[in-house]
Specification:
Chain A is mainly alpha-helical and about 180 residues long. Helix content of chain A is about 90%, strand content about 0%. The termini of chain A are far apart. In chain B, a hairpin with a 2-residue loop joins strand 1 and strand 2. The chains are: A mainly alpha (about 180), B mainly alpha (about 270). Chain A: Its main location: membrane.
Chain lengths: ~180, ~270
């Protein structure tokens, strides 16, 4: 630029215009071709990463909720089962006790029955033995008292039996009374 | 070559020495060529423009070339700048869906202009490149071509012309007046004001800084030293102010570019 010329600050100098456009052209081209796509890619990635993180957190929460529901359901089932088992055990226990009680009752009755039978047999045997002994003793005694006069054995037996029958009747009357 | 060589004043001239204030002027925006290649004169603003390219490309290459999902410090800073332009300017004016296509254009333009402006306060550089009309004019021309081609591609020839100079819903009598004005305003004045807005801000800012810087030096004699101090304080204040204006004007330039593109995309604005 020649400084002698009349200078007008509003008239652009062509070489400066060219250099200015070139300088801007380089900057624009670099931004357009490389820098803006590169940084936009990363910005998108970052946004996705953040949004993905939120999504993952949501997923995890849903999963946790689901597991909790499942767990609660299982717990309820387990409680139910336990209650059922307890009930069953109670029923079984009651049945067992009832059964054992019945068995005990039955055994007791059997023992008592056996005792009664034994007693009856013993009593009969004792009564039999007693009757023979008493008869013999009374005969001996009577024989001794009356002497030798009572040889008639048959008559003697009848008298004794009658006597004993009277005795028994009296005893039974005493018992009844 | 340093800047003061180019300034048209004697460096040993002070007040009370009998020499007048070497006020800055249009000559402050003239540069002797650093070298010449076949009639092409390469000067300092061109060097600064190319350095701007280097700085913007270098920074964003370092920040964005191998981006990571979890960003490092440099990438974080780069992303903050990128997001500011993308969301704060492009999405706000053009919208997310249609604006995405123009993000590289607007982002690169914003940072390129900003760095070119910032040279104004960088020691040794100390010259805002857009204070030479050629640089903002070139960029405004690119923007003009962009939105004009969008306009005609989107609406066809007749629709495009209509979009340039017709506003619906006005009294019929006003159209003979309005249509030529709208056409002139949109097609011819718009790129001019677009370029000049940036140029004039940087031009005036540079002059302000020059005046106070030169004055600080010029007043450095006798009682003038006290005034030189005041002037130097003004240099510091104006430097900070310029830092703000540089960012603001880069922002305004790309915001207007977005507004023009949006206007071309949608009829009946």
């Amino acid at each position: 630029m020649a400084s002698e010329e009349e200078q007008n600050p509003l008239v652009p100098e062509i070489p400066e215009l060219v250099v200015g456009l070139l300088a801007f052209g380089i900057v624009f081209w670099l931004f357009y071709a490389k820098l803006v796509p590169s940084i936009n890619k990363v910005l998108d990635e970052r946004r996705e990463a953040i949004e993905g993180g939120i999504e993952k957190a949501d997923e995890a929460q849903a999963e946790a909720q689901r597991v909790l529901e499942e767990y609660r359901a299982q717990l309820a089932d387990a409680r139910h089962e336990a209650a059922r088992l307890r009930q069953e055990a109670q029923e079984q226990g009651a049945a067992l006790i009832a059964e054992m009680r019945a068995e005990g009752q039955r055994q007791k009755e059997a023992i008592i029955e056996a005792g009664h039978t034994q007693l009856e047999a013993d009593r009969k045997q004792a009564a039999q033995a007693l009757r023979q002994d008493v008869g013999r003793l009374a005969t001996d005694l009577a024989g001794r008292i009356v002497g030798e006069s009572l040889e008639d054995h048959a008559r003697q037996s009848r008298i004794i039996d009658r006597f004993l029958g009277e005795l028994e009747e009296r005893a039974e009357e005493g018992v009844r009374r | 070559m340093s800047a003061d060589q180019m300034l048209a004043f004697e460096t040993d001239c002070h007040i009370f020495d009998g020499c007048g204030f070497p006020s800055p002027g249009l000559s402050s925006f003239l540069f002797k060529p650093m070298f010449e290649v076949g009639g092409f004169e390469f000067n300092k603003p061109m060097l600064l423009a190319l350095l701007s390219t280097l700085v913007v490309c270098g920074f964003f290459w370092a920040a964005f070339a191998k981006p990571k999902v979890v960003p490092g410090k440099l990438q974080m800073v780069g992303e903050a700048g990128y997001d500011f332009v993308r969301r704060g300017i492009v999405y706000e004016t053009i919208g997310k869906k249609e604006g995405e296509k123009y993000v590289p254009f607007i982002v690169s333009m914003f940072f390129f202009i900003w760095i070119m402006n910032i040279w104004s306060v960088v020691p040794l550089a100390q010259f805002p490149v857009p204070s030479l009309i050629a640089f903002p004019a070139g960029l405004a021309g690119v923007v003009w071509l962009t939105w004009m081609s969008i306009n005609f591609k989107r609406h066809g020839f007749v629709g495009g012309i209509k979009n340039l100079c017709y506003m619906p819903g006005l009294p019929k009598a006003i159209y003979p007046l309005l249509i030529p004005i709208e056409f002139l305003s949109n097609v011819l004045v718009r790129p001019f004001t677009h370029a000049v807005r940036l140029f004039a801000n940087m031009f005036a800012g540079h002059l302000l800084l020059l005046i106070f810087t030169i004055a600080s030096w010029y007043l450095l004699n006798g009682i003038g030293i006290a005034y030189a101090g005041v002037s130097f304080v003004m240099v510091v204040v104006m430097t900070m102010f310029e830092l703000f204006i540089q960012a603001l004007q880069a922002y305004v330039f790309v915001l207007l570019a977005c507004t023009y593109i949006e206007g071309a995309l949608h009829a009946d604005h």
